[in-house]
Amino acid sequence: MTPKHMLLGLAIIFAWGFNFVVIKWGLDDLTPMMLGGLRFLVIAVIGSLFFSRPNTPLKWIIAYALALNFGQFAFLFTGMMFGMPAGLASLVLQSQVIFTLIFAVFLLKEIVRPYQILAIGIASSGLSVIGFADSNTTLTILGFALTLAAASSWALGNIITKAIIQKGYDANINLIIWACWVPPIPFFICAYFIDGSHVMWENLIGIDWKTLATLAYLSLFATLGGYGLWSFLMARYPAGTVAPLTLGVPVVGISSSALLLDEQISQAQWAGIALVLLGLILNTFGSRWINALTKR
What we know:
- The protein has one domain.
- Helices cover about 75% and strands about 0% of the residues.
- It is globular, with a radius of gyration of 19 Å.
């Protein structure tokens, strides 16, 4: 990867890692359902002006959007509202890799290699340590469980994406953009029944420059900019070169949350973080390591 493109990769890592701090700020002014609905509405309105509709059938667009957009972020935003620290959320959400492997076995009948089973075990033990560590941090079991649910929704979205690709339909940034027309509907319906119409109205009339900046970052920078640059790099380099960059997202998320939100992490949770990262690294590079060893 050229230095210029490496800088683009680092920009993506920062945008996606800092994204969790911005979400926390957004939840100060908007309810989880309103934040989710407005975020995807902004993406859909602006993005569809620049990207054409994918050739993907509507039923697959809806399935993709409900899992990857609505399910993931409804659980994530609610989890962060109910005690999931932003920094830890950036890490725990990466457990989608583990859930994707598990879903692929049961839904797609894929074969999991021994090193992947080991990676699942290591990362799962790390998640257990994080979730059940006796600490004075703000982490709650409810927030942790909702974030795991968000990761499982992301994983289900990955399986749907793979099914879309196997059927020969578009699963590129065009799908990402146009699928954003779907989630505002369930988000606003949930906001009506969970928050009430008066809270929805108060959220709307209370939008100020801070809220607008939050929505702009989440929609334009983290989503349109982040996935746009990601697609650019994926088109020019092997997936094995680009994909490991996501391992830097929790590093940025945890660091920026500690710096800007003053989030505290206990020693036990740091141990859990190390185990999760070890599991993710083993899953990402295990195949290369095995191939390198067998060639000796």
